[in-house]
């Protein structure tokens, strides 16, 4: 029987066995891999190493400068962001304080009629018993919250904090002065919650006219003194002329008439 040629060649070749052991079993020494034997030449490696070493300092310096520039830019951005945040926080705190003050002023303004009733009761000696304790407690509470009462008889009139209901002339004052308080005013800090309603006494017109006439009278006296000597000199000159005409003889007078 004939054997095919392909099958016969396969049987002759057999399996290929490669010895990849790193240690030689006969000598016991380590084997060198075949790939390492085909390494590049030492001259090429040396040239590549020298060129890489020459290019490395310049590249490192450029990279370092770039990194420094980026760090400076990021630092400036952080400083600007921090300043914006600080300003924002201050603005929020300021707005919050303004809203709180406005809300507090609105609440206190609603309590002012009650405080007026307490004041009127004190004036008429009706603030007694439990009503007195409640009234004083309320007044101390609003005082702790920053509400301050103002407006007394004898204060100088200030249109920014006083509301003048009427003004009467008086010779006892030189500046507008409060002589009666109809309704006290209240302040909270520098903010006027309610102006004080008062009656104001002002200087009389005679006092104002007298103060204005004093300079005019002084000028008139000086003018009169200057005019008096001039009139006296004119009168003396007329008297001398009349005396000369009376002493002349009649002939002279006729000649003068001719």
Q: Structural class, please? A: alpha+beta
Which percent range describes the beta-strand content? 5-15%
Shape: elongated
Per DSSP, the total helix count is 6
N- to C-terminal separation? 207 Å
Task: Give the mean pLDDT.
Answer: 75
Strand count: 6
Protein topology:
Elements: H1 5-13, H2 34-37, H3 42-123, H4 129-144, E1 147-150, E2 162-170, E3 177-183, E4 185-188, E5 191-194, E6 196-203, H5 205-247, H6 250-257
Please give a structural write-up.
- Residues 1-34 have a biased composition (Basic and acidic residues).
- It holds the Pfam family GrpE.
- Residues 42-57, 204-237 have a biased composition (Low complexity).
- By secondary structure, the protein is of the alpha+beta class.
- Among the domains are: 58-145; 148-216, Roll (Nucleotide Exchange Factor Grpe, Chain A, domain 2).
- It is 63% helix and 14% strand.
- The protein is built from 6 helices and 6 strands; from the N terminus they run H-H-H-H-E-E-E-E-E-E-H-H.
- The protein has helices at 5-13, 34-37, 42-123, 129-144, 205-247, 250-257, and strands at 147-150, 162-170, 177-183, 185-188, 191-194, 196-203.
- The strands form 2 sheets. A 3-stranded antiparallel beta sheet has the order 1-4-5. A 3-stranded mixed beta sheet has the order 2-6-3.
- Mean pLDDT is 75; it is low at 222-236 and 242-258.
């Amino acid at each position: 029987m004939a054997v095919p040629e392909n099958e016969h060649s396969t049987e002759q070749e057999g399996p290929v066995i490669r010895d990849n052991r790193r240690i030689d079993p006969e000598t016991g020494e380590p084997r060198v891999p075949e790939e390492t034997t085909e390494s590049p030449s030492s001259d090429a490696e040396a040239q590549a190493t020298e060129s890489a070493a020459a290019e490395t300092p310049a590249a490192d310096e450029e990279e370092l400068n770039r990194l420094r520039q980026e760090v400076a830019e990021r630092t400036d951005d952080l400083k600007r962001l921090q300043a914006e945040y600080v300003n924002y926080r201050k603005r929020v705190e300021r707005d919050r304080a303004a809203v709180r003050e406005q809300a507090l002023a609105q609440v206190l303004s609603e309590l002012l009629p009650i405080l007026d009733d307490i004041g009127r009761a004190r004036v008429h000696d009706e603030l007694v018993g439990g009503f007195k304790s409640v009234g004083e407690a309320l007044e101390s509470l609003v005082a702790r919250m920053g509400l301050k009462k103002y407006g007394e008889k004898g204060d100088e009139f200030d249109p920014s904090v006083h509301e003048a209901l009427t003004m009467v002339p008086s010779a006892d004052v030189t500046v507008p002065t409060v002589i009666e308080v109809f309704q006290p005013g209240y302040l909270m800090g520098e903010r006027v919650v309610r102006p004080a309603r008062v009656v104001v006494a002002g200087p009389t017109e005679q006092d104002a006219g007298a103060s204005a006439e004093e300079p005019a009278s002084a000028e008139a006296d000086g003018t009169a003194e200057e005019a008096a000597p001039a009139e006296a000199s004119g009168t003396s000159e007329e008297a001398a002329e009349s005396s000369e005409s009376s002493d002349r003889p009649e002939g002279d007078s006729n000649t003068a008439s001719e």
